[in-house]
Fold this protein.
Amino acid sequence: MIKLSVNKLFRYLSVFLFLNSATLPVKSSSSLAAWALKTNGVLELRTKSNTNLKAYFQKANKKYGDRFWVDFPGELKTPRSIKGNGPIKEIRLGKPNKGKTRLVIEFKEETYLEPLTWQIVGLDQNRWRIKLFNPKYSFKKIGEGLVEKRKEDLKTKQNSIYKKKRNYYNLKLPEVKRNKFSVVIDPGHGGPDPGAIGIGGIRETDVVVEVSKIIKKLLSEKGVKVRLTRKNEVDLDLPSRVSFANNMNADIFVSIHANASRGKRKDINGLETFYYRGWRGKLLAKRIQKQILRVSPGSPDRGVKQGRFYVIKNTRMPAVLVEIGFLTGRLDARRLEKTTHRKRLAYAIAKGILEYLNKIG
Ligand SMILES: [Zn+2]
């Protein structure tokens, strides 16, 4: 039997807590509050604050397979066992002796384990984790209760809002008169100028081209004539983009960009839409801003603003410049990496454009 190694934090807590746990009355309830063996082979535990844990490993014998267990102070009310899956044969919760709780994980015979490398890590005063195995095949999570911190409830809530809106982009886009309108979509930057570079090297030029192409497809399906200022990595200067739109005599001009914050601050996220002049430009900006916010829950609304960007200042039609999120922001970048989110944004922008065309057409 091996008593497991513990990391510094654990040792610190363990010494500190030993004094505390000595005063725990024998009859107190189990200090194990929740546990989960996750799909990645990590066991997470939530306990009462300042709990002194002890963990053990025993090689298989005639009766049992390899077993890992953790002892907690406080007595378990109802001993029970839970059937395992994948490499796990069974998980048992029991009381080895009065005033104790034991969580036992029994592995199937063929499982390859490296218990000498195992470490229980204290995440904070009442949470712990230990990596037990690398799942070779899919492993279904087993657990009881919530192991996450209460603070994260907020995040869960946000996620459920997000899920509700998830099918948003399948909703029908508004109809407009067919073959009446023409729109220029301008994916910012390109060629030698990649635009903003964000977390993990994500590039503005790539994100905005993909979003723009989807917008084109969606609007074309509604009978709107759409031209992109660029379809791939070309070096296109700003005057060419403007004269392209002006020569085409487009009804509107929409430039698509993604932001970067000064100092690449990960806490700065958000969406904003600029126009240069006129109520039409402002209306278009408002419609688009409203829709992109709907598909980006939790990302701040930086508003509809007047901006003096070259492309919206020099185009002759109502023109806007949309910033679809911060590639340097933790929240936005994680989303912008994904095609599903780029699609949602494209739907949102297309919807804003169609609403606008409906209104003024
Ligand atoms: Zn840009």
Notes: The radius of gyration is 29 Å. The longest strand covers residues 100-107. The helical segments are 8-22, 153-165, 204-221, 238-248, 279-294, 310-314, 330-336, 339-360. Confidence is low (pLDDT under 50) at residues 6-26.
